[in-house]
Amino acid sequence: MEITEMNRIKAFDLKNADEAILKKIFTLNESYAPFLGPLEKIDNLKRLLSMSKYSTYITNDNEICGFMICFDEKTSYESKNYEYFKKKHNKFFYVDRIGIANRFKNKGLGTFLYKKIIDLNKNDDIKICAEVNVKPFNEESVNFHEKMGFKAVFEKEFNPNYAIRYYERDICRVQKIHKSQ
Question: Which domain range does residue 125 map to?
Answer without folding.
Answer: 3-180
